[in-house]
């Protein structure tokens, strides 16, 4: 099986307090779902249509594991805490075998 990578890019952050509440809940939810944080924070550089907002890369053993982490009750609580505090783009991709 190939690994999966969750790439979470924030396009904009409108409420830092809601973001902080999300981060407090989302990190433990990802770890509980089998995720391993590989990178997170502001990008060192962005090109073409990239934005210099918070980005997170999380490794999972499988796509199914990553999708299950997204759908988990714990992560859904994190999303509820974030609410309209940010606009994001989340992608889950498989590694190259």
List the topology elements.
Layout: E1 4-13, H1 16-32, E2 36-41, E3 55-60, H2 63-71, H3 73-82, E4 86-94
Antiparallel strand pairs: 1-3, 1-4, 2-3
Summarize the structure.
This protein is of the alpha+beta class.
| Percent strand | 25-35%
Please work out how many helical segments DSSP would assign: 3
Give the overall silhouette. globular
CATH topology: Alpha-Beta Plaits
Q: Which oligomeric state applies? A: single chain
CATH class: Alpha Beta
Quantity of strands, as a count:
4
If classified by CATH, what would the architecture be?
A: 2-Layer Sandwich
Series of H and E elements? EHEEHHE
Please identify the structural class as seen in this structure: alpha+beta
State the helicity in percent bands. Answer: 25-40%
Sheet with most strands: strand arrangement: 2-3-1-4
The count of domains is: 1
Low-confidence stretches: none
Main pleated-sheet profile:
4 strands, antiparallel
Domain DUF1330: 3-95
InterPro entries: Dimeric_a/b-barrel (IPR011008), DUF1330 (IPR010753)
Pfam families: DUF1330
